[in-house]
Specification:
single chain; alpha+beta; GIY-YIG endonuclease; 3-stranded antiparallel β-sheet; two-stranded antiparallel ribbon; 4 helices; globular
Amino acid sequence: MWFVYFLLLTNNEIYVGSSNNVARRLIEHNNKLVVSTAKFLPAKLLSYICVPTKSKAIQLEKYFKSGSGKSILKKRIIDVNFFVKDGLPSEAYAVKA
């Protein structure tokens, strides 16, 4: 199984990635092993989507990084405002139902 995962960074941006091991990948992000997120740590896992293949995960990751994908992510999947308190990620998180 593969996953598309969503992280909230300290700059209030949502990072979208894919992996076959979300827990390991989150540790890599928070240990500054990923250049694109290293300056905005700690990263918080917001949610993830399970897909059957790596190719589907990459396809879905690319979609959520596109303009329309970001819009759907913020409007329909993840309520970013719920996560942010005083400009920093809160401990709580929610996925829109």
